[in-house]
Amino acid sequence: MTEGSRHVPCVGAIAHDATGRLLLIKRGTEPGRGRWSLPGGRVEPGEDDSAALVREMAEETGLAVEPGPHVGTVLIGPYRIADYRCTVVGGTLTAGDDAADARWVDATEFAALPLVDGLAETLAGWAVLPR
Questions:
Q1: How far apart are CA 53 and CA 45, in angstroms?
Q2: Less Cβ around it within 10 Å: N or C end of the chain?
């Protein structure tokens, strides 16, 4: 068994707007129900990470994105989440799928939200926190 086969492959989106705010979703399901996180989800069979990122962003946020570079990967329980920068190219921000809410947050709002465990530290380590 290879390292990757032990974890469910997932993707996460790191999207900032023109003012440096970060796009977050409030999780509507476990893991992390009721906490704020990056939008994303499972990579479906036959998808590559880019296709999964585009699909998950449309489902969870209503936004169309152009996937960018890989920023980092985290292991959370059975999930291996590859996080990518992405650029919003269309759509209207609306919470959907398993997202209970979706919003752009600045640094002050980010610090006040109940986040999924490790998110703030991980994003700080990758230098992608909101401004």
A1: 13
A2: N
Q: Cα dist. 61→2, 15, 27, 91, 127 in Å? A: 33, 11, 12, 9, 23
**DSSP H or E segment with residue 119:** helix 119-125
Alpha-carbon gap, residue 90 to 93, rounded angstroms: 9
pLDDT tens, position by position, 15-69: 999 999 999 999 988 878 999 999 999 999 999 999 999 999 999 999 999 999 9
Least confident range of 5-9, 59-63, 75-79, 81-85: 5-9
Residue 120 pLDDT > 60: yes
CA distances from 68 to 24, 42, 49 (A): 17, 18, 11
> How many angstroms separate the most distant Cα atoms in the chain?
44
- Stated pTM of the model: 0.92
* Residue 119 CB burial class (10 angstroms; 0-12, 13-18, ≥19): buried
